[in-house]
């Protein structure tokens, strides 16, 4: 009260230990509210009275700010360290993987080596190959160049492309160089994949062959069909699928040897015999042509001959002797 009465900012006396503790707890509470999420704190619990408890230290707090200030205190931090030490002692010992330590050499790079790439093709096996010749005239003594293949997803220089892979060459003190080659399976057999280092000429040679893709099996082609849907001559017809259960099978197709315009139905049935005491049915009449002559009737007259002509099939006129025939 004495400090704040009629004083100006910066003109008050020294704060007491109690005021420093209050100010410190307030700063810790604001800091904890910004950085700590109470929903993820395993020791934070709200009881039935509306207050908050710390399950680790068994302390009671009136509000969330008071609890957060407690978590930054010495008592809570000491209990956390004790709990972590006890859990580490009780936990079973897990075998740790052996990590080999590699001492990375830091050398000054002198530039990229010279190289020559030759494309080749084997006419017998139909395989394509590449021949790499890398020159290392300033290579370190008792060292050999190294090479390895790298996937497109392993590098960070170019965008990913699954159609290609990279072949790397490295030798001290030269920079590591790489070649972009197709991502095709490589033939690793002995005579086709080899590498050689010539210490006299300081040249590293590597040759590789790409495997050829297996030929695709020829798929059977469907039989050629004519415009009206029938198969070509000499090709057996396809079997019809079985009819559904409970239905009659479809009628068989007509034979393919019929002339055009022939009827495709069933043959005409014979008329049934007449009943005793009934008249016989009239004979069938043709659609076009002369009608059949009934039995017991006069035959039809022949067509008249043209005027002044005598049909050659008629016999000469005959009559009684001495009597002239009338014309």
Describe this structure in words.
There is one protein chain. The radius of gyration is 57 Å and the shape is flat. The termini are far apart. A hairpin with a 4-residue loop joins strand 2 and strand 3. Helices cover 13% and strands 19% of the residues. It contains three helices and eleven strands; from the N terminus they run H-E-E-E-H-H-E-E-E-E-E-E-E-E. The mean pLDDT is 77. Among the domains are: 17-89, no CATH class; 114-210, Sandwich (Immunoglobulin-like). Strands 4, 5, 9, 10 and 11 form a five-stranded antiparallel sheet that branches. The chain has a three-stranded antiparallel sheet with strand order 1-2-3. The chain has a three-stranded antiparallel sheet with strand order 6-7-8, with no helix packed on it. Helix 1 packs across helix 2. By secondary structure, the chain is of the alpha+beta class. One of its GO terms (cellular component) is catalytic step 2 spliceosome. It is found in: Nucleus. It holds the Pfam family zf-met.
